[in-house]
Every structure is written in C-alpha cells, then in structure tokens.
Amino acid sequence: MNTIHEIGLQNQQDFWAMLYLYVGRSILDVCGRRGEKAVRRAVREMAREKGKKLASSYREKGVKTNLETLFAGGNHCSDDPRVRLEVLRQDEDIRIWEIYTCPMASLWLDAGEAGLGTMYCEENQHGLVEGFTGGVGQLNLTKKLTCHRTNGCRADDYCRFSAYYRAANCGGEQCKASFTAPDEEYQPYVPEEPAAGREMIREKCVQTVYYMTRAARELFGEEGLCAVALGLKELAGPVAELVLHNEDATLSTDRTAFLAANIPVSLDPAADPLWEDYGGCGTRELFEINFLEPFKRALDLR
What we know:
Blueprint (H helix, E strand, L loop, with lengths): L3 H28 L3 H27 L5 H4 L13 E7 L3 E8 L1 H8 L3 H19 L5 E6 L15 E6 L7 H7 L18 H24 L1 H28 L5 H8 L11 H5 L4 H16 L4
Protein name: L-2-amino-thiazoline-4-carboxylic acid hydrolase
Keywords: Hydrolase
Organism: Enterocloster lavalensis
C-alpha cells in the first residue's frame, strides 16, 4: 500500500508514460514503420543528453565517472515507488540488474503497445550509458517486460540490464577520470540527495515533447509535426478523465492543489524556464495548443 504522497508521484509518472505513448503511437500511425526511427532517435538523444550533463557535473566536482557513480543517485528507468528491482552486480566497470515490476511497462502493455515500450526500454538506458561514458560504455537488454513473443515461447516476466564500461577501452585521461584504481588519493563518492521526483518528471516531460518533435520534424517535415500535434491532442481527453477519477478516489476538493501535486507539467508554459531551453521547433506552441488548451477546457480551467 502506497502513501497519499507516493500516489501523487505515481500519477506524475503515469502522465509521462501516457505522454510518450500517445505521441509515439501517433508518429507510428501517421508516418508508418518509418516512424520507429524517429521514436528511437528521440529517446536515445534525450537519454544521451542526460548522461553527458551528469558526467560533466561530476567532473566539475571531482567525482569519478563510472557505472558505480552513474547509478548511485538513481538513474534507473524510473524512480517510481511501484518499481521493484534487484541489483545483481555493481562495480565501477559492470552493473547488472533486473526489474520485476514496472508501472510504465504495465501501462503500455494494457494499451496494447508493447512495441513502443520495447523501443523505450532498448534506447533509454543505452543512451544514458553512452552519453555518460563518452560512447565507450555498452548496454545490453536481454529480457524485457514489454516483450510479447509470437513464436509460442513464454513472454519475459522481468527486464535484465547489463552495463559495461571497461578501463581497457578508455584512453589514459578518461581512465584516470573514471576509475579509482589509478588514483590512490581519491575519496569515494557519497551521492547527494536526488532532485525532487516531480522536478525530474517535469523535465522529462518537456524533453520528451522536444526530442519527439525534433526527430519527427527532421525525418518527416510537416508530416512529423502533424503527427506530434495529433498525439498531444489525443492525450488531453484521457488525462483529464484520469484527473477526475483520481480526484474522486482521493477525496480531493481543491483542484488547483491536486493538479500541482499530480500533474508534473506547468499549466502556464510561458512561466516555466524549462521551455526556454526546450521550446525550439515550435515545441511549446504545439504543447499549448494541442494539449493544454483542450485539457483545460475539459476541466473547466481558465
């Protein structure tokens, strides 16, 4: 049983999973099988950027950039309290872990979109490791909850990730900056308190709209932009319905407070500095016109 505070975080996570689902599905519907390239590119580039920024911040603090420090503060597929995972091995150069319950996988499977889920699972952690290690690290995903086999074999019932970052594959300076063995004076890294869950999901939502829009436009031009717009428009109704359901389920009487605690994106993008960084490609306008306006109308918001 989760606490009322955890329910808010879960609803925020579900919002992101729905955002990815509706926009990704729309790209595939409009652009056909070609759309898979856009979805995969968007997910990997978004994760790669996160890995690069994290590595840069660590280097500024004098922290080694290896697989132990990468995952010390989280950085799993999701920090949702419903996720159940086990780390089988954790060293500076190897990390192997399994995920047994995942709300994102459950949502995508319930929607009949195992393929979209698989695209995310295959590209997200790969991009993160790639960005963090400067392209030297490797990531293998050998089992996945979103894998529905069609050859009569049993579907996977857990995800298994294996990440590798070998010192032998690094140059001298990168090796010294990454691993403690060549540096006897190095003090072990103590992870800081992670950023608030809502802030992390909020950033992920804005980045998802941006990278999906950019990839779709680069590959398909106006057709790609239309696909993103349609996906955002289709998302508005189900999210509004979910808000009404969750309000009733939690006996909430203050809609403004409820939205602040359960919807990770700002209802006023012009006042959110994140959109200054990720508002290119017409992203903010697409989000406002196609999602926020119909969402607000559905909830009688002004």
